[in-house]
Amino acid sequence: MKYENEKVLMIFVKNPVRGKVKTRLAKTIGEEKALAVYNDMLKYTCNITRNIDCSKVVFYSDFIDNNDLWEESVFQKEIQTGKDLGERMKNSFRLMFGYGFKKVVIIGSDCLEISSHIIDEAFRILDYKEVVIGPASDGGYYLMGLKQIHDSLFDYKSWSTSSLLNETIEELTREGVGFSLLPELSDIDEEQDMLNHNRFGTVK
């Protein structure tokens, strides 16, 4: 893999297939609209990450798409591996550290409040902290950045629950790992999340 500096941003995405994305949202607005919402979120994430000064890698859930909105001149492409989210994240961090990166940050594609400034700040925090986390309002997190792998952050965690962030912070505290928190932001997972966000305020 080619890389130009010590920093890399990993972007975890789901392949945009009707019925397989935004399933909680689809229960109330339908699969077609949920897919349209997710495609809009992918475009947003692509746009705000394109010009960040770091290497960038898109990790697909099922297959690598060489003809989508993620330009190969800007984004490297990989596929997620592992049986659950924790293992997929851990394997991806291991891969990037194995390539020689010193600061590795991961985000998803569910947050429309994240910005290039926040991601830049995450990389700056890694100058003096081992770990940086972006808390999500639902009790999870929208960003994590590491300077080295910490297996305990990914093993035996309550993924997609309101206790994930607290479990992660307790783990870091117990191990004496220095960390810092970014501002709390909201993900788009259900219809109310979507209606609360001005980007989707008129969607019915």
CATH superfamily: Spore Coat Polysaccharide Biosynthesis Protein SpsA, Chain A
* Beta strands, count: 7
Which spans of ≥5 residues are poorly predicted at pLDDT below 50?
none
Task: Give the strand order of the largest sheet, numbering strands 1, 2, ... along the chain.
Answer: 3-2-1-4-6-5-7
Q: How many DSSP helices?
A: 6
- Outline type: globular
Largest sheet: 7 strands, mixed
Cα-based radius of gyration, to the nearest Å? 16 Å
**Helix-and-strand structural type:** alpha/beta
Description:
By secondary structure, this protein is an alpha/beta fold. The protein has one domain (7-196): Alpha-Beta Complex (Spore Coat Polysaccharide Biosynthesis Protein SpsA, Chain A). The protein has helices at residues 23-29, 31-49, 85-98, 116-125, 164-175, 191-196, and strands spanning 7-13, 55-60, 76-79, 103-107, 131-135, 141-146, 179-181. It has a 7-stranded mixed sheet, sandwiched between helices. A hairpin with a 5-residue loop joins strand 5 and strand 6. Helix 1 (23-29) crosses helix 2 (31-49). The mean pLDDT is 88.
Features:
18% strand; 6 helices; globular; alpha/beta; 7-stranded mixed β-sheet; Spore Coat Polysaccharide Biosynthesis Protein SpsA, Chain A
Give a topology summary:
Blueprint: E1 7-13, H1 23-29, H2 31-49, E2 55-60, E3 76-79, H3 85-98, E4 103-107, H4 116-125, E5 131-135, E6 141-146, H5 164-175, E7 179-181, H6 191-196
